[in-house]
Design goal:
The chain has 19 helices and no strands. Helix 2 (about 10-20) packs across helix 11 (about 215-245). The protein has a single domain (about 1-430), classed as Hydantoin permease, CATH 1.10.4160. It has helices spanning about 1-10, 10-20, 25-55, 60-65, 70-105, 115-135, 140-165, 170-175, 185-200, 205, 215-245, 255-260, 265-295, 300-315, 320, 325-355, 380-395, 400-405, 410-430. The protein is mainly α and about 425 residues long.
Length: about 425
């Protein structure tokens, strides 16, 4: 479990998050990273324990709180977020391909005149590689993952050495962000929370196979925290080092490909980024395909995977339409915070408070059983989720929260209280 969750954060997206946080300055970014990640992964441990206790996946667990049919809601949301993460990793890797094409044949880089050609080719190449990895089967995916993680570890060590040869740690820690580009602390907390909460809804998928309580709670927490702190730190210091060395800071150049190019790491580094995107996306595509098959049982997993791969390819073009990957990524993270936070709160309150840490596993698939509610849907959970999503949107507009603690965790607390109150009231009414 420790290795699984370190590996979960050993990817391009984690580097990019670190680069984005550079807009807070080094000290503030590290404080945000530790606080928001640790709090997020407490929820990972809580979900992990439910998986250990029941032996059921996270979306299977959601049947107890949302209802057997109502669980299609979190399943569809999981489907969309994994599509989104596939697109994020694909875009980052496509950027690497465009840099390779620039170095090898002189094609313009994305953001410059004629730069879209390299990105189109990069997205096409990555989409083909993703399809090949899926069609090749699970053993090929496992092999790619093992090779990819080893290369990632080598790459981050290499990048760290190059960074600290370029600038000193004191220069990085004392660097000041240009005022007009500075990110508010609350916004940074929300950004990191959204990134980390995306893993929480997959927690029980892994811990349901554990045989010890500590393996389902302590190890995921430590592993995920170590992984995100380590890799985001690399992205953070690399981005700041480039700003210090060049005298100019552009938050749009926080992606690993731009960083690797500016640090002079060469073609090998760009190829590593491409490979690691394949390792991350093999899991994302499989998870999205499984979620789609769960909602539409008549679809075979193979057909679902082809649908997912096609949709992910189309979504990858969104940053090119918007003209900024950072803007598209920020919108995506806002979506995750808005829709995932309330779902996690509902599941946790339902299991730990309302059901006293006991689910009747056999009832999770039983029509007209105790988790059938009304027509297979617990409308209280659905209503709470809708209210939670609306509240997140409202809270994000409050300047006080943007400057301090952000909207995500406040929204999760309010969603938990709403669900608890409504369930208590309806239970008493039925009694």
């Amino acid at each position: 479990m420790f290795a699984t969750w370190v590996g979960a954060n050993a990817n391009n997206g984690t580097w990019y998050i670190g680069g984005v946080l550079a807009a807070c300055g080094f000290i503030a970014a590290m404080n945000v990273l530790v606080f928001s990640s640790a709090l997020s992964y407490i929820f990972l441990s809580l979900i992990g324990f439910i998986g250990y206790k029941t032996g059921v996946s996270t979306m299977g667990i959601s049947r107890a709180s949302f209802g057997i049919r109502g669980s299609f809601l979190p399943s569809l949301i999981n489907f969309t977020q994994f599509i989104g993460w596939t697109a994020v990793n694909t875009f980052i890797a496509a950027t690497s391909v465009s840099y390779l094409l620039h170095d090898l044949v002189g094609l313009p880089l994305f953001g410059h005149a004629g730069g879209n050609t390299g990105m189109f080719l990069g997205i096409a190449v990555m989409s083909i590689l993703h399809i090949i990895s899926i069609v090749s089967g699970s053993r090929s995916v496992q092999l790619i993952e093992r090779i990819g993680i080893i290369l990632v570890f080598i790459f981050v060590v290499w990048e760290s050495i190059v960074v600290f040869k370029t600038v000193s740690f004191s220069q990085i820690s004392s660097w000041s962000v240009p005022t007009k580009l500075r990110m508010d602390i609350g916004t940074a907390i929300d950004t990191v929370a959204a990134f980390n909460l995306a893993w929480v809804t997959a927690g029980a998928d892994f811990t349901r196979f554990t045989k010890k309580r500590s393996s389902s709670t302590v190890m995921p927490f430590i592993g995920a925290l170590v992984g995100v702190l380590w890799f985001a730190f690399i992205g953070l210091v690399a981005t700041i080092s480039i700003a210090v060395a060049s005298g100019a800071y552009d938050p749009n150049n926080s992606d690993p490909s731009s960083i690797a190019s500016k640090l002079g790491l060469g073609i090998i580094a760009l190829l590593v980024i491409v490979l690691t995107s394949m390792t991350a996306n093999a899991v994302n595509l499989m998870a999205a395909g499984s979620a789609l098959s769960n909602v539409f049982p008549r679809l075979s997993l193979k057909v679902s995977l082809w649908i997912v791969a096609l949709l992910a390819t189309l979504v990858t073009f969104i940053p090119m339409i918007l003209g900024s990957f950072l803007d598209a990524f920020t919108v995506f993270l806002d979506y995750i915070g808005m829709v995932l936070g309330p779902i996690i709160s509902i599941i946790i309150v339902d299991f730990y408070i309302l059901k006293k840490k006991e689910y009747k596993v056999a009832e999770l698939t039983k029509t007209n059983g105790i988790y059938w509610y009304r027509g297979g849907i617990n409308w209280i959970a659905v209503i709470t989720w809708v209210l939670g999503a609306i509240l997140f949107f409202i809270l994000q507009k409050l300047n006080f929260l943007n400057l301090t603690v952000g909207a995500t965790f406040i929204d999760m607390l309010l969603s938990a209280l709403i669900y608890l109150f409504l369930m208590k009231v309806t239970t008493k009414g039925n009694d």
